[in-house]
Structures are given as C-alpha cells and as structure tokens.
C-alpha cells in the first residue's frame, strides 16, 4: 500500500519531467546506432558483436540516468525528509530503485531485442538477449544506486560515478554477454545463467537494505 | 505528564579547525520551546541537523524518544514538480497515517493556500513554499519539531501564524527547537546561547 | 575486547600508534630491501634457466610477489572496512586511506612488469588475458578508493563510503576473476600457460618465497609510514601532537 503510493509519486515525477525521461533511451539508441553503423560489416557477419554492443550500451545508459537518481530529491530537501522517516526509508529506497528500473531497465529490455531483430538477428538469439537484459538490468540498477548514494550531495559529475561503478559492473556484463554468446554458439550456458541469477538475488536483497543508512550518512552536505 | 522527547548528551563537534560544541548537553521535553541563539556560523543549523540525525557529532550521542521527527531546514522538503496536494499526501504516506482531507483543507485554509492546492510547488512564491512546508509539518503530526529559521521569507501575517502554531503545538504536548539569528517573539522560549562556548 | 592482546589494543589508539610505530618503520624498510635484494640476486643469477622460457622467466621473481601482495592489500582494505563499519575503529579508517595508494602502485608495477615479461614470451606486451584484465580492474578499484577519499570532504563520511566501496569491490574480485576467465576461454585458445601443469621445482621456489616475504615487509613499511603521516594530519589539533611538533622544532 505504502509502496504503491510511493511508486505512484515517483512515476508522476518521471511523467511530469516529460521528454527529459526519454533522454536515456534516445542515448541508448544513438550509441547502439553509432556502433552498429561503424561496425556494420562485423555485425552482419556475427550476431555476437551486436549482443556485446547492446550490453555495453546498456551499462552506459544506466550510468547516465543514475546520476540524477537522488539529485533532484537532495536538491529540494525531500531526500532529507524521507531519510528521517526511518520506518519508511526502505520502502522509499525500493520505490526509487523500481522506478529507475521501470524507466530505463524495462524499455532497454524491450528495445535491445528489437534492435537485434531489425539488424537481422535470429529470433531465438534476440529473445535470449532480451532475457539476459531482463535479469541483468536490475543488478545494474542496484549496484549503480549504491555508488550513487555514496556520492549524494558532493556536486560531482557523472565521470566520477563512471570510474567508480564500471569496475563493479564487469561481472554482470561478462556473464550476460557470455550467456548470449554461448546460446548463439549452441553451447551450454547454464552456469553463466546461474551466475546472472546469483548476482541478481545478491544485489536485490542486500543493496536496498544498505541504501537507507548510506543515504542518511550522505546528508551531511 | 512531562516526558522527554530528545536529549543531547555531551556532544563535541569540530568541523575543520573551529570548535563548534564542546560537551553540549540539552534536553527537550514535552511542552518546551527551545531557542538556539547565536551569530552566523556558531553551529545552530549544524546542531539541529545533528539532533535530527542528518549529521553525526564527532563524539557524544543523541537519544531520540520520538520517531519520526519533524525537521524543517533551509530547503523546503517539497518536490518542485508535484502540486501542494501531492506533497501533503506524500508526507502522510511517509508517516503511515491515512491522509485526512478535512484536516488538510483546514490547514491550507489557515495558511491561505487553498487556491494554490493544485499548483506545482515551483509555481509558488518562496513565502508560500515556507507556508506549505508548515502544512506538511502539521500533516505529519510530529511531536518534536526542529525548525531552522522558521520565520525566514514569511510576511508579518505568516510570522504571526507560525508563532501561534508553535505555541499551540507546544501547548498540546509537542516540543520545538528553533534556530534563529534574531530574538524570537515567543515569551516562554528557553534560550540556549551557542555563541560563547 | 578482552581477547585482543594489549599491544594490539594499544596500537588501535592513534597516540600510542604514533609513538610505538616510529621505530618499526625503519626496520621494515631495511629488512624488506635486504630481503628483496637477496631474493632477486638469487633469482637472477643462481637459479637455472627455465625449460621453455629461458632467462626471461626471471622477472617472475619481481612480478609474482608484487601482484600477489597488491591483491592481498585490496582484501585487507575490505577487512578494515568491515572493522570500521562494525567497531568504528579509527585506525581501520586510517589503514584504508594509507593502504590504497600503496596497493595502487603495486598493481601498476605488477601490470608493468607483466608487460615486460610478455614481450619476449608472448611477443606482445598486452594480451586481453583473464589475469591481466582482472589485475587491470583491480587497478581501477584502487583508483576508485583513492578518488573517493579525495572527493568526500567529511572524514567520517569518507571512511564509511570507502568501507562500503571496498567491501563491494572485494566481493566482486573473485567474481570478476571467474567471469573474465570464462569469458576469455570462450573466444581464444588459452594463452601460453605460464608453467603448464608442471609444478614449480623447488630450486625456483626459495628465492620466490624470499621475495614474497620481502614485498610484504616493504609494503607494511610503506603503509605504516603513510598511516603515521595520516595520524599526524588528523590529530593536528591534539595536545600530544602539538607537544611532539614542539619537541621536533627544538
């Protein structure tokens, strides 16, 4: 109930931001397009290249949008108010994460396979790409949110965020791509897929609980 | 019935080279209004933030007997692209109380925000935003208020209103800690001078 | 905290640490340098050439200890992070800040020596091999810690932020290793296995162990010297530091 009310508020803010909410998606398409165009001879020959391009672009898109995850709320003081309601802080944090995933993760999960299909990817392979993105993007959101929370209020730009987050993203990136590649090569991908699930469960259970205290600590400036 | 809402236990705070507090003890009980006085930079806002839990002292501790705490800082704590109404609803969601429309109407009426209820916060004037954050404070039914310069950017009528509000709140068993650079027009306030530590 | 020995407990206080540790540092430097020289000379001059790589393998005696200690320093920072989060021990925070630059330099040295080794052995300085990539990521993790310390003005907050980043990074290190390894084996046949499946013969081992121990000792010296510096910086207003400064200037 509380979660739903908070989620409505967050989505309302996204909705009111209008075209601003679409910047990450446009960025995603733009970067994938640029890669695909410059690498077109490789992409038409090997679906694995496009899979890697889409996965890497997903990471960049996520980092771009994470930058503003807590920024607005910190600027207008609502983050401080939310942090002081310790009973509701986990719900607040979870809604923020879910909202971020709803406006970047889900659209990318849908867009990625479509881009693949349009570029001549096999249907099965595109489906697998979509599936790995579906279980990978929440992990990306979680890890990114944790590092973003550490930097709240420091007035630092996205490049610092990138340097801190990207190394932490390597496992999910490689496992996600591995699953798709093995699937394309008709090899067994079970263990890699299980790793993706492990990262998903690990990050979605631990990080929402850690975020409340971290955000409280980050209120000092 | 006199119960304690919050105690500040022997806190030290030294951000940078200047010492702000050295062994400060304060106790806030029901019905009390505590006024923090002192010149700019003496740590009034810092003390309020430490009391709220938004900042940590270097040593010493804060014991809070009430939760949540109503904190009103320099920022208004209102989402700028939501309306007044939506912001009020959010406060009640956070405190877990059901949103009381009648009560909200009453407060909005009092603060002359009735006509602005469906306006976005960013369309309001600074004084109206301040008024709106007071309505949020009332909606949240907090027992302890921590107010940082509550009279800033209010007109004389708003000032009068807030003063009555604080008195009424503390008359009903609430308590308030108020940071102010000028003397408060509140007769029963206890003064804590931070300038001469 | 009864189970902690008194001398260790003593070191957890900045003041005692500052006083006690001074004499150690010099000894660590001397011991580490001598050990490193002995190990290296032994490895370079007195060990027979390796069967496949000839003499070029001898850089192992520098490369392997450095890479090993660099990794261990990261793990130790994460452990200090846990200690800081749980017990709020001030020295844990000092340790994290002091060890990160040392670890960062060692990782960079490990990469550089690895590249030098790669040139004669692989014919190229850089391969996107699992180990190299995970070491490179380790370098970025260290860099992240150093940068984070710099950008957070409030020391208490910086310490907590550093602990969290270090812990998440440390959880990631083994996963990164696995993921990089699996990913890499997909694409290219394994690069030259450094020693294949033949175990390292004992002749090669003794100088290696000497060097590993020496790098440990040297790194400890650097970290302690760094910590001492940080203790002075943070407690500059304390009377015991003031007294020490006055004593120095007289």
In short:
Chain B is an alpha/beta fold and 197 residues long.
Features:
heterotrimer; A: 221 residues; mainly alpha; 10 helices; globular; B: 197 residues; alpha/beta; Rossmann fold; 3-stranded antiparallel beta sheet; 5 helices
**What is the averaged pLDDT score of chain A?**
91
Which geometry of chain C do the CA atoms define? globular
The number of domains of chain A is: 1
Q: Average pLDDT value of chain C?
A: 82
Number of DSSP strand runs of chain A: 0
Order of helices and strands of chain C: HHHHHHHH
Gyration radius of chain C (Cα, Å) is 21 Å
Strand content of chain A: under 5%
Main interface by residue count: A-C, 31 and 27 residues
Give the amount of beta strand of chain C, in percent.
under 5%
Number of domains of chain C: 1
> How many helices of chain C in DSSP terms?
8
Secondary structure class of chain C reads: mainly alpha
The H-and-E topology of chain A, N to C, reads as: HHHHHHHHHH
Structural features, described:
The complex is a heterotrimer of chains A (221), B (197) and C (250). Chain A is mainly alpha-helical and 221 residues long. Chain A contains ten helices and no strands. Chain A has one domain (2-220). Chain A has helices spanning 2-17, 23-38, 40-45, 47-66, 71-76, 78-84, 89-118, 123-150, 158-184, 190-217. Chain B has five helices and eight strands, in the order E-E-E-H-E-E-H-H-H-E-H-E-E. Chain B has a single domain (4-193), classed as 3-Layer(aba) Sandwich (Rossmann fold), CATH 3.40.50. Chain B is globular. By secondary structure, chain C is mainly alpha-helical. Chain C has one domain. Chain C contains eight helices and no strands. Chain C has helices spanning 6-11, 14-46, 60-87, 90-122, 130-151, 155-187, 202-234, 239-249. Chain C is globular and about 60 Å long. The chains are: A mainly alpha (221), B alpha/beta (197), C mainly alpha (250). The A-C interface holds A 143, 146-147, 150-151, 154, 156, 160, 163-164, 166-168, 170-171, 174-175, 177-178, 181-182, 185, 192, 195, 199, 210, 214, 217-218, 220-221 and C 137, 140-141, 143-144, 147-148, 151-154, 157, 160-161, 164-165, 168-169, 172, 175-176, 178-180, 182-183, 186.
């Amino acid at each position: 109930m509380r979660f739903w009310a908070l989620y409505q508020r967050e989505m309302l803010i996204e909705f009111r931001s209008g075209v601003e909410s679409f910047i990450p998606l446009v960025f995603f398409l733009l970067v994938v397009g640029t890669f695909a165009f410059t690498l077109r001879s490789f992409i038409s020959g090997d679906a694995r290249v496009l899979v890697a391009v889409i996965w890497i672009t997903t990471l960049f898109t996520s980092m771009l949008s994470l930058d503003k995850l807590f920024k607005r709320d910190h600027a207008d003081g609502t983050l401080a108010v939310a942090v002081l309601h310790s009973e509701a802080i986990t719900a607040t944090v979870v809604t923020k994460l879910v909202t971020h995933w709803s406006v970047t993760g889900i659209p990318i999960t849908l867009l990625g396979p479509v881009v693949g299909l349009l570029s001549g990817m096999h249907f099965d392979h595109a489906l697998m790409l979509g599936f790995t993105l579906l279980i990978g993007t929440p992990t990306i959101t979680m890890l990114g949110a944790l590092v973003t929370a550490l930097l709240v209020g420091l007035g630092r730009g996205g490049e610092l965020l990138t340097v801190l987050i990207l190394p932490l993203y390597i496992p999910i990136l490689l496992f996600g791509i591995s699953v798709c590649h093995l699937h394309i090569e008709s090899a067994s991908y079970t263990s890699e897929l299980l790793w993706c699930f492990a990262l998903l469960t690990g990050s979605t259970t631990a990080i929402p609980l850690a975020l409340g205290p971290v955000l409280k600590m980050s209120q000092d400036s | 019935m006199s119960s304690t809402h919050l105690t500040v236990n022997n806190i030290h705070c030294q951000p940078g080279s200047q010492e702000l507090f050295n062994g400060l003890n304060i106790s806030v009980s029901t019905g009390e209004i505590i006024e923090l006085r002192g010149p700019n930079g003496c740590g009034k806002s810092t003390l309020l933030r430490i009391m709220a839990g938004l900042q940590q002292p270097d040593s010493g501790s804060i014991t809070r007997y009430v939760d949540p705490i109503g904190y009103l800082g320099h920022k208004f704590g209102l989402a700028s692209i939501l309306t007044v109404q939506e912001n009020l609803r959010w406060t009640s969601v956070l405190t877990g109380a059901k949103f009381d429309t009648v009560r909200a109407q009453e407060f909005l009426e009092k603060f002359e925000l009735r006509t602005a209820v469906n306006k976005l916060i960013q369309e309001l004037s600074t004084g109206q935003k301040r008024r709106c954050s007071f309505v949020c404070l009332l909606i949240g039914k907090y027992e302890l208020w921590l107010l940082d310069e509550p009279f800033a950017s209010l007109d004389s009528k708003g000032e009068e209103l807030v003063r009555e509000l604080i008195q009424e709140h503390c008359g009903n068993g609430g308590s308030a800690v108020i940071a102010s650079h000028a003397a408060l027009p509140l007769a029963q306030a206890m003064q804590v001078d931070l300038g001469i530590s | 905290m009864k189970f902690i020995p008194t001398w260790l407990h003593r070191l957890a206080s900045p003041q005692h640490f500052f006083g006690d540790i001074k004499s150690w540092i010099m000894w660590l430097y001397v011991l580490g340098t001598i050990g490193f020289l002995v190990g290296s000379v032994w490895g370079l001059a007195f060990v027979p050439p390796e069967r496949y790589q000839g003499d070029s393998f001898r850089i192992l005696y520098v490369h392997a200890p450095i890479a090993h200690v660099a990794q261990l320093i990261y793990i130790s920072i994460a452990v200090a992070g846990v200690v800081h989060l749980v017990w709020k021990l001030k020295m844990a925070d000092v340790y994290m800040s002091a060890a990160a630059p040392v670890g960062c330099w060692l990782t960079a040295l490990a990469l550089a020596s690895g590249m030098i080794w790669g040139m004669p052995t692989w014919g190229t300085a850089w391969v996107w091999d699992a180990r190299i990539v995970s070491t490179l990521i380790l370098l970025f993790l260290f860099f992240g810690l150093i940068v984070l310390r710099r950008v957070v003005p409030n020391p208490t907050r910086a310490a907590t932020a550093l602990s969290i980043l270090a812990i998440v990074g440390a959880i990631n290190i083994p996963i990164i290793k696995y993921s990089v390894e699996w990913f890499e084996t997909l694409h290219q046949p394994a690069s030259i296995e450094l020693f294949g499946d033949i175990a390292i013969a004992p002749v090669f081992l003794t100088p290696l162990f000497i060097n590993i121990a020496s790098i440990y000792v040297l790194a400890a010296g650097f970290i302690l010297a760094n910590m001492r510096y940080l203790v002075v910086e943070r407690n500059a207003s304390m009377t015991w530091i003031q007294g020490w400064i006055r004593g120095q200037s007289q």
